[in-house]
């Protein structure tokens, strides 16, 4: 469904992604793990067109998205939960969700989806009229994921959803991710520091080092891999 | 609280002022008789007035801090004014009185007053337009007067060359101003905050300089004269009748502006402006087209300036570049900031205060700017959120 072919991305003169190749099939949960500064967020930003790659090709559903504007890419069905949540602090929870559905014109379906989100995260329903900036970190993360889901993406890009969350909340977020993947058949591309959790839910995983993909395998195999254990699982 | 400490500080300030002003206000060399006059009474005046001024300033600041602490403790972010306003028992009678007053205004007062009010209403419209750009989209535009000029000159030139009337030109000028908004907006899309302010300021000046120097096009500094006043079905009107008519045209336009701005504010595009102001990357991830959203803000903001310009040209029947200096942009920006960014009611009151006050302060014309300046400074210190704070109506679904 999504294919990155020899993607090279730069910030000014600094090359961050070096010949990245990733292949994601429909319905999968794929995770990308790696150290700080490896280039994981940059990979997601490249897919979204926010930091367009300088060379290489990104293909979604057989169509190239390289060089397309971010809003066109969202319209094609790719939605991103950016790193650090980036909730709109002065908009209410509902308004934040509505921003997620910015490109959708079907008001009734948007309304229904919002109800669906509120079933998924009852706490957001309670806080619906509260300004986004006044939510707790965990609530903001839930809102960020919900906001991206409001676009009804076929591919959801998640950048470190567990950042700064208590283990219980992290588990809950991961349960929801699995649920969204199964019930809505949303393909998920997950970037995580928390490799342990991520590799357990993911079908397959990629390991990135200094902007290069150095390893790829099924989630379980990577969990058992000695090098991965040493570098990312603290053991 | 610490009254003694505060008074001591005020005393120090007044002593410092007396010392600073001593050479100019106290000593005077009388060159005729070659003696030095000591004007001690001046020192006393400076001392007493700075002491009182400083004490008052400190007192007000402490009052403000106290009320802020109380506000922070209690939820509900409406001011007492807004609470009274949302109370139906109070709201409807007030509304009726207001409507009655607005309708009878030109009949009750002199033409001079009506003319002042027309100017004030033009500024209400300009303020509401700039409020879209600055208050909602958060783009600090210091060249707003350029669009006002585009509107005024559209009417002036189209009338001069093609004899087009007020009502035909009004929409044309609105469109031309919107196009100018897009044209000027496009190159500055990447800029924010102070950089944007400087570049737009430059644009505003460019337009004025072009109008001043491109004589064949704009008639240069001598401007365009004999612009017709607003017409009504070709009826011949006396000057008085026409002023009254212009007044009502302006009332209608302001109501139309309020209606549209209110709709915009509570629409998806309005929220997208707010979102874009807060976080551009998140907006991109939501599929909000940055370019288009910002340009819409510029264009929609400029539209009102264009229409305001037409009414201005029709009202004064004469325009020249001197009416479109940077000072105008600054005043309009002050209206938005002073009134309360993003708040429609705030901008209206800001416009009325800032245009009517200088008129009625003509009696003290020497001190007009001083009073104006003191007012601006104290407003920003004591009520930085503006006269009427923006309480945004938030987006909700009706219950099923
Ligand atoms: N806007 C930017 N300008 C310049 N360099 C950047 C920018 N954003 C990221 N970088 C650099 O690119 C490299 C990769 O950054 P990236 O954010 O992709 O890392 P990451 O793998 O997501 O790390 P983390 O796990 O800490 O989030 C880093 O060396 C970073 O300094
Ligand atoms: Mg990152």
What does this protein structure show overall?
The complex is a heterodimer of chains A (235) and B (400). Chain A is an alpha/beta fold and 235 residues long. Chain A has one domain (2-232): P-loop containing nucleotide triphosphate hydrolases (Rossmann fold, 3-Layer(aba) Sandwich). In chain A, 40% of the residues lie in helices and 27% in strands. In chain A, a hairpin with a 2-residue loop joins strand 1 (2-11) and strand 2. The relative contact order of chain A is 0.19. The mean pLDDT of chain A is 91. Chain B is mainly α. Chain B has 2 domains: 3-73; 109-382, ABC transporter involved in vitamin B12 uptake, BtuC, CATH 1.10.3470. Chain B has helices at 3-26, 40-73, 80-86, 88-108, 111-136, 145-162, 166-185, 193-213, 215-218, 239-265, 268-278, 280-285, 290-316, 326-339, 344-360, 368-382; strands at residues 27-30, 35-38. The longest helix of chain B is centred in the first third of the chain and has 34 residues, at 40-73. Bound molecules: adenosine-5'-triphosphate and magnesium ion. Residues 11, 14, 16, 34, 36-42, 83, 193 of chain A line the site of adenosine-5'-triphosphate.
In what order do the strands lie side by side in the largest sheet of chain A?
A: 6-7-8-3-9-10
Low-confidence residue ranges of chain B: none
Radius of gyration of chain B: 25 Å
Just give the CATH class of chain A: Alpha Beta
| Small molecules bound | adenosine-5'-triphosphate, magnesium ion
Q: What percentage of amino acids of chain A are in beta strands?
A: 25-35%
SSE inventory with pairings:
The complex is a heterodimer of chains A (235) and B (400).
Chain A lengths: L1 E10 L2 E11 L4 E6 L5 H9 L6 E6 L2 E2 L5 H7 L1 E4 L11 H8 L6 H14 L1 H5 L10 H13 L5 E5 L7 H17 L3 E6 L2 H7 L2 E6 L2 E7 H6 L1 H7 L3
Parallel strand pairs in A: 3-8, 3-9, 6-7, 7-8
Antiparallel strand pairs in A: 1-2, 1-4, 4-5, 9-10
Helix pairs in contact in A: 3-6
Chain B lengths: L2 H24 E4 L4 E4 L1 H34 L6 H7 L1 H21 L2 H26 L8 H18 L3 H20 L7 H21 L1 H4 L20 H27 L2 H11 L1 H6 L4 H27 L9 H14 L4 H17 L7 H15 L18
Antiparallel strand pairs in B: 1-2
Helix pairs in contact in B: 1-2, 4-10, 5-10, 5-13, 5-14, 5-15, 6-7, 6-8, 6-13, 7-13, 11-13, 14-15
The complex binds adenosine-5'-triphosphate (ATP) and magnesium ion.
């Amino acid at each position: 469904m999504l294919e990155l072919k020899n993607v090279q991305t730069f910030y000014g003169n600094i090359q961050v992604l070096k010949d990245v190749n990733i292949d994601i099939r429909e319905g999968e949960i794929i995770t990308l793990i790696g150290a700080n500064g490896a280039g994981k967020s940059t990979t997601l930003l490249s897919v979204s067109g926010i930091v367009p790659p300088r060379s290489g090709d990104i293909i979604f559903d057989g169509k190239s998205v390289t060089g397309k504007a971010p809003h066109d890419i969202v319209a094609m069905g790719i939605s991103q939960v950016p790193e650090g949540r980036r909730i709109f602090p002065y908009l209410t929870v509902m308004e934040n969700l509505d921003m997620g559905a910015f490109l959708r014109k079907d008001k009734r379906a948007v309304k229904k989806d919002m109800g669906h989100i509120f079933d998924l995260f009852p706490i957001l329903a309670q806080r619906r009229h509260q300004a986004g900036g006044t939510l707790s970190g965990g609530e903001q993360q839930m809102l960020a994921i919900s906001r991206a889901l409001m676009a009804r993406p076929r591919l959801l890009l998640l950048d470190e959803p567990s950042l700064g969350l208590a283990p219980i909340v992290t588990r809950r977020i991961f349960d929801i991710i699995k649920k969204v993947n199964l019930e809505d058949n949303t393909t998920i591309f997950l970037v995580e520091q928390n490799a342990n959790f991520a590799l357990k839910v993911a079908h397959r995983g990629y390991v990135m080092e200094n902007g290069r993909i150095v390893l790829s395998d099924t989630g379980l195999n990577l969990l058992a891999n000695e090098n991965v254990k040493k570098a990312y699982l603290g053991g | 609280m610490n009254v003694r400490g505060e008074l001591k500080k005020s005393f120090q300030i007044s002593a410092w002022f007396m010392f600073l002003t001593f050479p100019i206000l106290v000593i005077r060399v009388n060159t005729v008789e070659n003696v030095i006059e000591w004007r001690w009474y001046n020192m006393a005046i400076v001392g007493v007035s700075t002491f009182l001024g400083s004490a008052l300033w400190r007192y007000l600041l402490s009052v403000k801090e106290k009320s802020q602490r109380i506000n922070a403790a209690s939820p509900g972010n409406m001011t007492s004014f807004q609470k009274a306003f949302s109370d139906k028992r109070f709201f409807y009678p007030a509304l009726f009185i207001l409507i009655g007053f607005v309708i009878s205004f030109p009949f009750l007062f002199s033409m001079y007053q009506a003319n002042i009010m027309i100017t004030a209403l033009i500024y209400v419209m300009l303020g509401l337009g700039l409020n879209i750009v600055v208050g909602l989209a958060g783009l600090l535009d210091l060249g707003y007067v350029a669009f006002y000029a585009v509107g005024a000159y559209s009417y002036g030139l189209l009338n001069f060359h093609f004899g087009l009337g007020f009502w035909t030109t009004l929409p044309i000028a609105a469109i031309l101003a919107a196009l100018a908004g897009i044209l000027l907006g496009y190159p500055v899309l990447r800029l924010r905050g102070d950089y944007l302010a400087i570049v737009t300021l430059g644009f505003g000046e460019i337009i004025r300089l072009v109008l001043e120097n491109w004589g064949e096009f704009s008639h240069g500094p001598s401007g365009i004269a004999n612009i017709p006043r607003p017409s009504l079905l070709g009826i011949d009107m006396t000057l008085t009748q026409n002023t009254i008519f212009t007044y009502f045209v302006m009332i209608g336009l302001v109501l139309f502006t309020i209606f549209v701005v209110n709709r915009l504010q509570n629409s998806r595009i309005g929220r997208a402006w707010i979102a874009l102001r807060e976080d551009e990357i998140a907006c991109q991830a939501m599929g909000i087209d940055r370019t288009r959203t910002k340009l819409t803000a510029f264009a929609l903001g400029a539209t009102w300036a264009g229409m305001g310009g037409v009414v201005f040209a029709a009202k004064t029947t004469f325009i020249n570049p001197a009416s479109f200096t940077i000072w105008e942009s600054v005043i309009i920006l002050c209206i938005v900031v002073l009134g309360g960014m993003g708040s429609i009611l705030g901008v209206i009151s800001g416009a009325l205060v800032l245009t009517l006050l200088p008129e009625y302060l003509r009696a003290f014309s020497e001190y007009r700017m001083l009073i104006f300046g003191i007012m601006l400074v104290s407003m920003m210190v004591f009520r930085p959120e503006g006269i009427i704070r923006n309480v945004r109506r938030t987006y909700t679904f009706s219950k099923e």
